Amino acid sequence: MPITFACATSHAPGITAWADAAPAPQKDRIYGAFERLRRELDASATDTLIVLTSEHWTNFFLDHVGAFCIGRAERYSGPVEPWLQIARQEIKGDPALAAELLEACYDNGVEPSFAYELEFDHGTMLPLHFLMPRMERPVVPVFFNTLAAPQPSAGRALALGRIVGEVARRSPRRIGFVATGGLSHDPGERNHGIIDTDFDHRFMAAMADGNCAALGAYQRSEFAAAGAGAFELLSWIALAGALDGRKGEVIAYEAVKPWATGVGLMTFAHGLAA
Amino acid sequence: MSLYALQKLIRDVNRKPSCREAFFQSAETFAAGYDLAAPERDALLKRDVGTLYAMGVHGLLLRPFTLLHKMPEPDYLKAIRGD
Do A57 and B77 touch (CB under 8 A)? Predict the structure, then answer.
């Protein structure tokens, strides 16, 4: 079955936690774009979502850092942040699909770690809150180490994405993808509040073109220059790999100063499975 | 220096309610349970955010830690930028 749904979104916590700090026109365009993605997801009759995501020292610490981690839990909970303005809730997992992803990865030269117990922070909960407010579909989270150097390379994220995309395509089930993180931002760091709109537009243009060669060639130094949070775009690159060059559309981009983030939302719904 | 132990302490305070309570009861006693170098312990106990950042504490550990201390964002940024 072809992939039934795919999108990429930022997950800046200010989007919900201090939503009205943003200028109303910016907030409205971003909320409108999330609403469009929610409608596309509902119309796609997707059974289960693979969420390509990152976290913020919630589950993982320096006692054990892996490049990628696939969740194989029966259920997850989140958000861990009581201040996010999103109610804490349970989200169903899909351990059978997680096992398929892991086996495919290990058979094809990429060896993610895996976990039977994970909590979600804003990085995963914020997009799910907008896209699937009733949390009616199971999810398989795929976490990328975006915090502790060395982060996985863009080429490696692309390779992982290609493998999980192939699993989704050969599944009889209706599988969708959400990639989340970025764009330029430097949370808690020296350049907090600085947004590199040139970087953001260049990156989204490559995503819109499905230009896997350009995306896989991004260097750690380029992400670092756009702020520590730009490493989260590894998940977007994995999505490009999963979609194998499919073109996408930027449906919103705003450099939101009060959220200290270049906030982008893209859809890849055009031409996906009916 | 033992940046790992310092970051571990801060992460424990951020993430574990029992650690948070113990830290705010007595930071000195709580810190004794971690293998900190003297300058690290000193910076921690003084809540010297600029020094903690310069020592290499990750921003996504340090900023939540300062939020527990109700430190406003402009003050935090001023401290880590050394303004």
Answer: no
Domain that holds residue A174: 5-267
CA gap B61, B2 in Å, rounded: 16
**CATH fold for domain B3-81:** Protocatechuate 4,5-dioxygenase; Chain A (1.10.700)
Of A32, A6, A40, nearest to A248 (Cα)?
Answer: A6
Q: What is the ipTM of this complex?
A: 0.91
Task: Report how many domains make up chain A.
Answer: 1
Structural contact between residues B33 and B26, judged by C-beta atoms closer than 8 angstroms:
no
**Tens digit of each residue's pLDDT (9 = 90 or more) over A76-131:** 999 999 999 999 999 999 999 999 999 999 999 999 999 999 999 999 999 999 99
- Residue B47 distance to chain A (closest CA, Å): 16
Task: Read off the CATH number of the domain in which A149 is found.
Answer: 3.40.830.10
Is-cis flag, bond preceding B17, omega within 30? no
CB contact under 8 A, B60 and A61: no
Q: Does the beta-carbon distance from A187 to B63 stay under 8 Å?
A: yes
Interface test with A, best of B57, B75, B77 (most A CBs within 10 A): B77
- Judging contacts by C-beta atoms under 8 Å, the chain B residues touching residue A187 are 59-60, 63
Query: pLDDT tens across A255-273, in order?
Result: 999 999 999 999 998 766 6
A185 touches chain B (CB under 8 A): no
- For the stretch A190-205, pLDDT in tens is 999 999 999 999 999 9
Is A272 a domain residue?
Answer: no
Q: Which residues of A90-127 are buried (b: 16+ CB within 10 A; e: fewer)?
A: ebebbbebbebbbebbeeeebebebbeebbbbbbbbbb
pTM, to two decimals = 0.96
CA A38 to chain centre: 15
Residue A9 resides in a domain: yes
